[in-house]
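WARN retry 2 of 3 for item q-0093 after timeout on previous attempt; input resubmitted unchanged.
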Amino acid sequence: MATYPQNLKYTKDHEWARVSANTATIGITAFAKDQLGDVVYLELPEVGAQITKGQPFGVVESTKAVSELFAPVTGKVTKINQTLVEAPEGINDDPYEKGWMIEVQVASEADFADLLDAQAYEKIVAGEQH
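OK item q-0093 returned
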């Protein structure tokens, strides 16, 4: 069973968020990456775009499937990982560091309250693996 970094927050849709003050850096979990297979294409919003919690903010395409990416928080995109857009296989190698996708200035820190800690996320993943 994979272990998930304790310093991150998670969603039931398999996104992670690294929270720092009113900023969230967002990516997909190792579980999502493993389910998708080799990532070959990534579509992300532009810097300045507004994303809405629970709504799609981008698309990740792999050799097996195309999946929407769901925003864990509402806010304004302040950075995108252009390196990852140009070489999305970085997600395959390192979904938590090199594989970050976007950075968001969060509209309300209350959004963080709904995110899962690593233990709660592990229970969701364990339930999906049966």
